[in-house]
Structures are given as structure tokens and as C-alpha cells.
Amino acid sequence: MGMALDTIVPWGRSFEEYVAMFGLTNTDLTKRILGCGDGPAGFNAALTARGGTVVSLDPLYAFNKEQIRGRIAGTYQTVLDQVRANSHDYVWDVIPSIDALGHVRMSAMETFLADFEAGRRADRYIAGELPSLPFERGTFDIALSSHFLFLYSAHLSLEFHLQALNDMLRVAHEVRLFPLLTLDGFPSPHVPMVIERLSRQGHRAEIARVPYEFQRGGNAMLVVAPA
Questions:
Q1: Is 200 strand, coil or helix?
Q2: What is the superkingdom listed in this entry's lineage (predicted)?
Q3: What is the domain extent for residue 28?
Q4: Using CA atoms, how far apart are residues 93 and 73, in angstroms rounded to an integer?
């Protein structure tokens, strides 16, 4: 562990975005869910409030609420400015504008901040990071990871992806990853190789369309389950 706070750029997505990004059904939402790299997302707080069972894992959770709030405040405008500079790479329909994006993200992060201390006491927010998870085999039904694997293909090797996926498959019956694009909007070169290697290990690895597209072309997830 020991990731420095000033290297983390917290950017939280909403419960509704999680449902759409991962094609989560009402039945899925009753299962035991692990979110890997959730950051300051609103998903855990909202699903817990609905009576769901969810644990989030992120290096951000080593810090306290005020440290995280300060880091959000320090990076928020920079992130919005980056999106504004690359606005043609995004689909502005559900989220119609930069202002709307800022509102959705800040609202999700406020939902997270209001829940964080109680959630940390309840072991719903655990400091840690891929590729190795601090959970027993089969603890979860579904493990989710958004905007980390594949997105950072330029920084994370194929071996890192396989190690992370194998550990997610150890602790959960099914894994869903979103998106399948890199930061620059191209299909990740790791995807076909990951599918091939996991298939060879006896897993079922498939690409599925989802009802979500904000990064242009980012409307599919990888679903991996035991064969």
C-alpha cells in the first residue's frame, strides 16, 4: 500500500452510472458485490441504502474524509478542464454538458463522503488495490471494476491484467470490467489477449454491450465467469 494522496485523482461515478456501465439487473443488485477501484463513487452508499451487500476496495480509503474531500477539491477543476479540452471524445446526451458532468460527479462524491466514515467502520470501504485482493475465495458473487483495467493499458501490462482478473475470479463468481477502451479512446490491445488467455484457463470471457456510453465508443464490458 502506501500510495501518496497527491498521486490519486478522485473521480466518482453515480449509482445510476454503475447500473448502466455494468448492465446490472435488479437480481444482480441483490447479490454480494465487490467494487475494485471504486474511488469516491456513490454506488456503495446508494446500494447499501437500498439494502444491498457491497464492499469497495481502493487505495483512497487509507485516507480520512477531510483528506479525501481536500483532494477532490484540489483536482476537480483540472479533470473537468481535461474533459472540456477533449469534449469531442465524449457523447453528450445523458450528460448534456460539462456543467452537468461536474454536477453528476460532485453529487456522487458527496454521497460517498457522507457515507465514508460509517462505511469504513462497517468494512464496506477497504484500503487496497489490484492485483491482489484481501478476501477469501468465493466471498462475492460479482466483482466490478470500472475505469482502471484496460483504460490504463499504456501503464498496466497484460500480465498485470491477468493477475488482477485471476484474483477477482478467485474472490467472486463473475467479473465485469468497463470500459474496454484506453484513455485515448482506442480499443485496448489487451482485450483480445485477455479473452484468449482466460478462455484457455477454462473461463467464459465475453464482450457484452451495455446501455451506457460517455467516452465515445465505450459502450461494452467484458464479462468473465467460470465455464
A1: helix
A2: Bacteria
A3: 5-226
A4: 26
Residues 9-31: tens digit of each pLDDT: 888 999 999 999 999 999 999 99
Q: Please state, in angstroms and as integers, the Cα–Cα distance from residue 190 to each residue in 72, 88, 155, 210, following that order.
A: 30, 25, 12, 20
Q: Give the number of other Cβ atoms within 10 Å of residue 107's Cβ.
A: 13
Q: Is 2 helix (H, G, I), strand (E, B) or coil?
A: coil
* Beta partners for residue 225, in sequence order: 204
Distance CA 20, CA 161 (A): 23
Count the domains in the chain: 1
Mapped onto helix, strand or coil, the DSSP state of residue 75 is helix
Q: Closest by alpha carbon to 182, among 130, 147, 210, 158?
A: 147
Q: What CATH number corresponds to the domain at position 165?
A: 3.40.50.150
The whole-model pTM stands at 0.95
pLDDT at 2: 58
- The residue ranges of DSSP E strands in 15-149, in sequence order, are 32-36, 53-57, 125-126, 140-146
